Amino acid sequence: MALGLLWLGLALLGALQTQAQDSTPNPIPAPPLLRVPLQSDFQNEKFQGKWYVLGLAGNGFNKEKDSQLKMYTATYVLNEDNSYNVTSTVVWDQSCDHWTKIFIPNLHLGQFNLSNIERYTGTQNYTTRVVTTNYNQFAILYFKKVFNNQEHIKVTLYGRNKDLPSVLKEIFISFAKSLGLTEDHIIFPIPIDECMDK
Ligand SMILES: *[C@@H]1O[C@H](CO)[C@@H](O)[C@H](O)[C@H]1NC(C)=O
Ligand SMILES: *[C@@H]1O[C@H](CO)[C@@H](O)[C@H](O)[C@H]1NC(C)=O
Ligand SMILES: *[C@@H]1O[C@H](CO)[C@@H](O)[C@H](O)[C@H]1NC(C)=O
């Protein structure tokens, strides 16, 4: 593994440990966005393309209940105004379902919110942050959504391929836990082939 990647992981964990020390014991509330790491000097062109969703963590996930969740993809296409069209492709009832959300840049490079939020009934706020990425192998994203006055947090592990070295999975798990999530909130969707190349 490239030294650069290892360094990235260690730097990220260092930042997280510093945060964990002063975090409150209550696991549910979302941390202030400022405390969530942000990929520095985010390169939006390099981030484009297809990502496999290899890990999911969040206060809306349950390891047992969601144990049959299948892998899906998220494809990022940049628009001229620097927003992204983000198309998710999932297997649903033997066919491939696609839907597209638009992420608009919000305050920082690598931070976005959802365009046309009024179309998503019940969703009051939706922000995502690219926590870390090396563009050609993996990314970790943080999502915060306010839905019917309740905060939902989600962390995703993206890979350019369907598998990633275990050190990256460990970094993802550590990050999720630094937000107060537990093993029960972390799932690794089942690898599949259907729809993954569409
Ligand atoms: C993104 O989606 C919008 C709305 O569906 C569409 O008009 C636009 O052409 C898309 N952009 C790209 C780069 O495909
Ligand atoms: C999303 O970000 C844009 C640009 O910073 C801002 O104008 C808009 O109010 C934000 N929307 C929400 C729901 O936060
Ligand atoms: C949504 O976000 C905006 C700014 O980002 C904030 O002012 C507002 O209080 C948030 N609303 C909710 C319901 O969290």
UniProtKB/TrEMBL annotation:
UniProt cross-references to Gene3D superfamilies, sorted A to Z: 2.40.128.20
Pfam families on file: Lipocalin
SUPFAM superfamilies reported in the protein's UniProt record: Lipocalins
Localization: Secreted
UniProt keywords, alphabetically: Disulfide bond, Glycoprotein, Secreted, Signal, Transport
Secretion signal span: 1-20
Lipocalin/cytosolic fatty-acid binding domain location: 48-189
PANTHER family in the record: LIPOCALIN (PTHR11430), NEUTROPHIL GELATINASE-ASSOCIATED LIPOCALIN (PTHR11430:SF13)
Family classification: Belongs to the calycin superfamily. Lipocalin family.
Protein name per Swiss-Prot or TrEMBL: Lipocalin/cytosolic fatty-acid binding domain-containing protein
